[in-house]
Every structure is written in C-alpha cells, then in structure tokens.
Amino acid sequence: MQLKREREQHQLFRRHKFVGSSVAQEELNILESYAAIEKDMLSCRRDIQIQESTAELLCKRRARAVQREVLASADLDHWVPQTGSVSGKTHYLHTLTGEVLHQHPHFPQIEARWEEVRNEVEAQHRPKRTKMLAYLESLKGQHEDVYDNVAQLLSNLRELNFKAQFH
After folding, report:
1. Domain 2-72+104-166 - what CATH class?
2. What confidence score (pLDDT) does residue 84 get?
C-alpha cells in the first residue's frame, strides 16, 4: 500500500516535472521571439528616424543652394533694399511705383523652387520610407501573434496541470 502510494506520488511528480519543463521551454521560446521582434522594431524605428532626418537635411541643404542661386541671379530692377530705423528689418522699396515689400521681391520664385526641391527629395525617399513602414507594421503583427501564443500557452498550462493531477 505504501509502495503503491509512493509510486503514484512519483508518477505525479514526473508529470508535474514534465508539465513544468514543457511550459518553461514554451515560455523561453515565446520570450526569445518577443525579444527578437522588439529588437527589430526598435531598429526599424531608428532606421526610419535616420532616413527622415537625412531627407530633411538634404532638403534644407538643397533649399539653401536654390535660394543662393536665385538671389545671385536676381535682378532687383528698381527695387532698393532699406533697413527700418525702428525695427532694423530689411524691406524693399520699388523706386518707380513706391511699392514696399517686407520680403525679397523674388521670394515667391524662391518658394516655388523650394517646393520643387521638397518634392524631389520626397520622391527619392518615399519608396524606402514606405517599405520601412510596411516592415514595421508586419513586426507589429508578429508582436500580436506573440501575445496570442502567450494566451495559448496559458491555456495549455491549465490543461496539462489538470491532466497531471487527475491521471
């Protein structure tokens, strides 16, 4: 009788040990996949930020070059830059019409060229950014799958514990 009870306890112990090691291995697998996904997501977000910063820097650099180009070739025909005595800001006076502008007379042309530069840079960088954002979204989907795996693991754990206790 004592031997039978010890054998049953030993078998119960072996079942619990099996359940514990199975669950531990599943937990380890899930944690490893979770850590890998988190690492990839962080890396992808960093790459997106770097790419956006690079595009912005390139856009600013080209915009400054365009502005210098327009101003160097600009003919101010009858426009005279003047500095306000109170504000100290530069405004432009047309000597024939008396019109006063608070910005450079060729500023609309500069703005139009800036828009062209912005569109060029955007067109160059959009495909890569779109691809990186799609990859990030797929990682988010994988992240959700990991949570589904956790729910499945908990369900399996309950089932295995139940079976270990009553078999």
Report:
1. mainly alpha
2. 83
Is the confidence at residue 167, as pLDDT, over 60?
A: no
The answer to whether the beta carbons of residues 23 and 156 sit under 8 Å apart is yes
Q: How far apart are CA 94 and CA 8, in angstroms?
A: 105
Cα–Cα distance between 104 and 76 in angstroms, integer?
9
Question: pTM (2 decimals)?
Answer: 0.62
Element (H, E) at 75: none
Q: Which residue has the tokens 């010890």?
A: 6
Q: How far apart are CA 136 and CA 46, in angstroms?
A: 11
Is the separation of the CB atoms in 73 and 82 below 8 Å? no
- Strands (E) across 28-128 are located at 79-83, 90-94, 100-101
What's the distance, Cα to Cα, between the start and end of the chain in Å?
19
Type of residue numbered 127: P
User: In terms of pLDDT, which residue wins out, 124 or 156?
Assistant: 124
